[in-house]
Write a structure and sequence with these properties.
Number of strands: 12
Structural class: alpha+beta
Number of helices: 4
Order of helices and strands: EEEHEEEHEEHEEEHE
Strand content: 35-45%
Shape: globular
Largest sheet: 7 strands, mixed
Strand order of the largest sheet: 1-12-2-8-11-10-9
């Protein structure tokens, strides 16, 4: 018998409303597969070609993201990316990306990373209370990716059309959630789960 598939680190958190009336900040916990991709020495051009051929993805440059076929590639460091896709089963994304292995080291981070999604009309104002980034749409447009400290937790932030997804170590997800709820109380927080 195999081990149970991992749940989101915040799966135990009950949906509910906190703070002011309304839902200026909506917090969700989308279940995602995460694969770290680090190009082997001198193999970045071959990796880019393989990603385009196998996944249909153009690997983005610094601060960028690209999406194709249900997979997002987030630039995280020179010659390093994070692939993210909706949960489809243990190792599914790693299996899809396995053709990149001759050109890159691939590590499944699905168990070790959690995604917290922020949306709602006041998501940027709430996040600005605990993160020192310029979140104006001109500085943080859709597809922008940055690493930042949110409260006391380091996270990768990915601007989406509806708001932002924060990717953090699963062991720190509960602390990050507490920081985000506290930052959004003035606007009203709906924890959607």
């Amino acid at each position: 018998m195999s081990a149970a598939e991992p749940l989101h680190a915040l799966a135990h958190v009950a949906p509910g409303h906190h703070g002011a009336p309304g839902a200026g900040l909506v917090i969700g916990f989308p279940r995602r597969e995460v694969v770290q991709v680090l190009a082997r020495r001198g193999a970045a051009p071959a990796l880019a070609a393989a990603a385009q051929g196998v996944l249909g993805l153009t690997l983005p440059g610094p601060g960028g993201a690209a999406e194709a076929g249900g997979i997002a590639a987030l630039w995280t460091q020179p010659e390093g990316w994070m692939l993210i896709a909706p949960w489809a089963g243990e190792g599914t994304l790693l299996g899809r990306a396995s053709a990149l292995a001759p050109h890159a080291a691939l590590t499944d981070q699905s168990h070790g990373r959690s995604v917290i999604a922020l949306s709602g009309p006041a998501w940027a104002q709430a996040l600005a209370r605990c993160c020192r980034l310029d979140l104006h749409p001109a500085a943080f447009p859709r597809g922008r990716v940055v690493g930042a400290t949110v409260g006391h937790v380091q996270a990768v932030l990915h601007a989406t059309g509806a708001g932002v997804e924060l990717i953090c170590f699963s062991t720190l997800a509960e602390e990050l959630l507490g920081t985000l709820v506290e930052a959004g109380l003035t606007f009203g927080v709906e924890v959607a789960g």
